[in-house]
């Protein structure tokens, strides 16, 4: 399956909050429609080169779905839509203007490492779930710097 046919959640491999989001999505996505990739992994770079500049520069959760990229609150809402009922009920927040949604997202993102902590590497993925990762789970990345989303 090519990248264009996949729903890919790109996340900060150092952020514990992001790792918890990935674990939560794996539990809720029983159909296995969503794949995962750490933003720090070089193997995902060819996909990210297709993204618009503002998304490539973003330090944010990014969702690649149906050949398009979304980030911040829009990515989260589209993720909930992919998960189906009852999570797709969160789509009611589309009525909230994106600048307002993104302001809340940015506030949480700014403090996420302080509130939730950070990893030296991605968490270890259960054996039966490894096929859903497009990057190597548990890999240690050079640098380890991660800014606010």
Account of the protein in words:
- This protein has five helices and four strands; from the N terminus they run βαβααββαα.
- With 149 residues, the protein is of the alpha+beta class.
- It has a four-stranded mixed β-sheet, covered by helices on one side.
Keywords, please?
149 residues; alpha+beta; four-stranded mixed β-sheet; 35% helix; globular
Concise account of the structure shown:
With about 150 residues, the protein is α+β, with helices and mostly antiparallel strands. It is built from five helices and four strands, in the order E-H-E-H-H-E-E-H-H.
Secondary-structure element sequence? EHEHHEEHH
Structural class: alpha+beta
Largest sheet: 4 strands, mixed
Shape: globular
What layout of secondary structure does this protein have?
Elements (H helix, E strand, L loop, with lengths): L6 E5 L4 H13 L5 E5 L6 H4 L4 H4 L5 E4 L2 E4 H12 L14 H19 L33
